[in-house]
Design a protein that fits this description.
alpha/beta, Alpha-Beta Plaits, Malonyl-Coenzyme A Acyl Carrier Protein, domain 2, 4 domains, nine-stranded mixed β-sheet, six-stranded mixed β-sheet, about 40% helix, about 20% strand, disordered N terminus, disordered C terminus, Ac_transferase_dom_sf, Acyl_Trfase/lysoPLipase, PfaB family protein, PKS-FAS_Synthase
């Protein structure tokens, strides 16, 4: 191993190269000094096995010469780095806050290392003229040379960054930050262009099959003009996922077969936590707690969540005081569960266990998506986003140009087809997250309105659901038949081209269905579209809808959205809806999920005779699409078939709110589903923190004993522990070095200053 400051000057004013560099870049934790003689090499290897498993498994650090460069003169440092890499060496180049490991891309590939990024070009130019106008010309010329070296056209660059007047340390830190953004696929917004409630960053979307490429210009005017231009492209590796739980987002779980066991476990946990500080020991406590939980199978489970050790101790006390009361009142629908604002949760009647088989995935309809939704998730589940990007056009799937538009008013004003695409996309993402990351499989699935299409797309039924994206944007069914010009409605109302445009609207009204149905004959162009608990939705000619509301002496909340779904005129398009959704199915279909039709309440299961086929699915969607949606009846049907725990898979939590109201109405009015247990679990909530809401949902599922894995939580904690231990080791080494330095005799000779 070799240490070097690489402070030699650059001999030429202009560095030219015609061949791409092909250098693999790995972002290292700033605390890792791979060449530090004062550190225990065994400990470094131990932490690397967790933080960078591919590098650890490759044994490259044991078999290849490593050059360590501390940034002092960035131009010279980079030149020395490239020379060392060309000689087959590894190079760690770093500042106190940033660190990169660099090697030839071929070496990385041979050792099965997926780099975070690839350095394809570096060009350096210098001029003696310090005029400001020369700087811009030089930067463009330097970048042109870099793109030529990288064999890339200017339009292949995703983003260009011009960073002027930074010192060497600042230059390196800025470049490292951009490489981290590439590796984490994160787009940062200009904070001056967004409002206080908008996300400061989100997933970095690109066109399908389009790689992310960054062009960077570093310019300086000290002692003349100089410019360094880089072309860096995304690698096949990702920054390690952020830990879902950490020292600021705590989670602990206790499990037992009876009340006494739960109370004992809470007491033990409190004693352990009281002795724990905010460092590695707290992370280990949470990790070991989850490992112990994974190994147990108690009948009951309590999930505890808090933002600090002090708050967690309070959660423990509150839960200990409440457990006996909840257990004593088991069987009473309003008292069988306990939750705190922080997310701690306990139920005395688990509804999601294998014995209950009561887990239902519920898919919301059009209009639940919102501006900046899911802006944080990619940092915690990078592999999932990568998989979705490989499968199809993720940018289109989320309608990213609208959802993440700097103007938050754009998303709510999306056309019907775009809303439908983004709605299915959000449901698909959350389904894959629960199914593939946490190994959760539902017993039932149902959808609200177009949520039925989301259900078939998300749960492994359709073979190529992504092909529907472009069709939804362009098919007349969505652009003009039941939205836009409403051609289906004009046909049903027997209007011709000379008749005026239809003024259509829909209204949510607090009323049972019966009074509305009684008045509909007087208003032939108004329709009962949706029945949902204690409210209904009427739609049609705006004037007739308002007149109907006035006669009922009711106020309606206008949706101000043009869609004729669930009204009689939509039946004109029944055949087209069938044709649109008649999609090829997967060869291997899920056999353990009961799919419930919103139109009939019928259940479709792929392992039964006459079960799932393309036509069955298409008919089910068309029937739901073209008839009044009775969501209340759908929920009751699901409950009668055994659904008890309803998990909403989609943006926001509107279906959970509706199901809660339906269950409350049943209890108050002695409805037909009074005796059926019912609990809802939102996975997302508008206005909430993505990960906090997800963690609360997982906490509920754990307490309801839903079969799942907590491995993503454990993996994140292991990385946090490794990083914490490495930082502690470095601090200890630095302290020892300082102590040894202070104990050395003063050897300064007389006359020295």
């Amino acid at each position: 191993m070799v240490h070097s400051s690489a402070s030699a000057s650059v001999s030429d004013q202009v560095i030219k190269s015609e061949m791409p560099l092909r250098i693999a870049l790995l972002v290292l934790p700033a605390s890792i000094d791979l060449n530090a003689a004062s550190l225990d090499s065994h400990e470094i290897a131990k932490q690397l096995s967790v933080l960078m498993p591919e590098l650890y498994r490759s044994k490259l650090l044991e078999t290849t010469e490593l050059v360590s460069i501390k940034v002092d003169d960035f131009e010279a440092n980079l030149t020395a780095t490239i020379e060392s890499i060309e000689q087959g060496k590894l190079v760690q180049i770093s500042t106190p806050t940033s660190s990169l490991l660099m090697m030839h891309a071929l070496k990385a590939a041979q050792n099965r290392i997926h780099p975070h990024a690839q350095l394809a070009a570096m060009q350096i130019q210098a001029e003696l003229d310090s005029a400001a106008s020369v700087t811009a010309c030089m930067a463009d010329a330097c970048m042109e040379s870099a793109l030529s070296q990288a064999k890339r056209k200017p339009d292949s660059v995703s983003k260009r960054f011009d960073l002027p007047e930074l010192n060497s340390t600042e230059q390196f830190d800025a470049v490292c930050k951009l490489i981290q953004d590439l590796a984490s696929r994160t787009h940062h917004r200009d904070t001056q262009s967004i409002g206080p409630k908008q996300a400061t960053s989100h997933y970095w979307f690109t066109d399908h099959h389009q790689a992310r490429v960054v062009a960077i210009n570093l310019t300086n005017s000290v002692n003349g003009q100089s410019c360094i231009s880089f072309v860096v492209s995304q690698g096949t590796g990702f920054i390690a996922p952020k830990s879902i739980i950490d020292t600021k987002r705590l989670q602990l779980v206790v499990s037992a077969d009876n009340q006494a066991g739960l109370i004992d476990a809470l007491g033990t946990l409190k004693a352990q936590l009281a002795l724990t500080t905010q460092g590695s020991s707290l992370l280990k406590l949470m990790r070991d707690n989850l490992l112990a939980f994974e190994a147990t199978s108690g009948k009951y489970a309590i999930t505890l969540q808090a933002g600090s050790v002090e708050a967690m101790l309070q959660e423990l006390d509150a839960m200990a005081e409440t457990v006996s009361k909840i257990m004593a009142e088991s069987g009473q629908a309003l008292s069988q569960q306990y939750r705190t604002p922080a997310g701690s949760y306990f139920t005395a009647e688990p509804l999601g266990s294998s014995a209950q088989n009561g887990l239902a995935f519920v898919y919301p309809g059009v209009g639940t998506v919102y501006s900046d939704m899911f802006s944080e998730l990619h940092g915690y589940f990078p592999s999932l986003f990568s998989q979705l990007e490989r499968e199809g056009d993720l940018k289109s799937m989320f309608q990213a140009d609208a959802i993440y538009n700097l103007d938050p008013k754009v998303a709510p004003a999306m056309p019907l087809g775009d809303l439908a695409i983004a709605g299915v996309g959000s449901s698909y993402l959350l389904t894959q997250l629960l199914v593939k990351e946490f190994n959760i499989t539902p017993n039932f699935a149902l959808g609200y309105s177009m949520g039925e299409a989301s259900m078939w797309a998300s749960l492994g039924v359709w073979k190529e659901p992504h092909t529907l994206i472009e069709k939804t944007k362009t098919d007349p069914l969505f652009t003009s038949a039941i939205s836009g010009k409403l051609t289906a409605v004009r046909k049903a109302w027997q209007l011709d081209n000379s008749d005026a445009d239809i003024v259509w609207n829909s209204f949510v009204v607090r009323s049972p269905a019966a009074p509305i149905n009684a008045l509909l004959p007087e208003f032939p162009h108004a329709y009962l579209a949706i029945v949902q608990g204690d409210t209904c939705v009427i739609a049609g000619c705006e004037n007739q809808c308002r007149a109907l509301l006035a006669q009922m002496k009711k106020r309606g909340i206008a949706a101000n959205r043009v869609t004729a779904m669930h009204t009689a005129p939509a039946m004109e398009e029944h055949g087209n809806v069938e044709l649109f959704y008649n999609q090829p199915l997967q060869e291997s279909l899920p056999t353990d999920i009961k799919f419930i039709s919103a139109a009939s309440g019928d259940t479709h299961v792929s392992n039964t005779q006459g079960g799932l086929d393309s036509q069955v699915v298409a008919n089910s969607i068309a029937d739901t699409f073209c008839n009044t949606l009775d969501f209340t009846a759908l929920v009751h049907s699901a409950q009668k078939q055994g659904a008890k725990l309803f998990v909403e898979l989609g943006a926001d939590r509107q279906n959970c709110t509706l199901i809660d109201k339906i269950a409350k109405q049943d209890r108050q009015c002695g409805g037909e589903s009074t005796d059926f247990p019912c609990c809802t679990v939102p996975v997302n909530a508008k206005g909430g923190d993505d990960i906090t809401t997800l963690l609360k949902a997982l906490g509920q599922l754990i307490s309801h004993r839903v079969p799942l894995t907590t491995q993503p939580l454990i993996d994140g904690l292991n990385r946090e522990i490794a990083l914490s231990q490495l930082q502690s080791q470095l601090q200890k080494a630095a302290s020892t070095t300082q102590c040894n330095s202070e104990q050395m005799p003063n050897l300064t000779l007389q006359g020295e200053v």
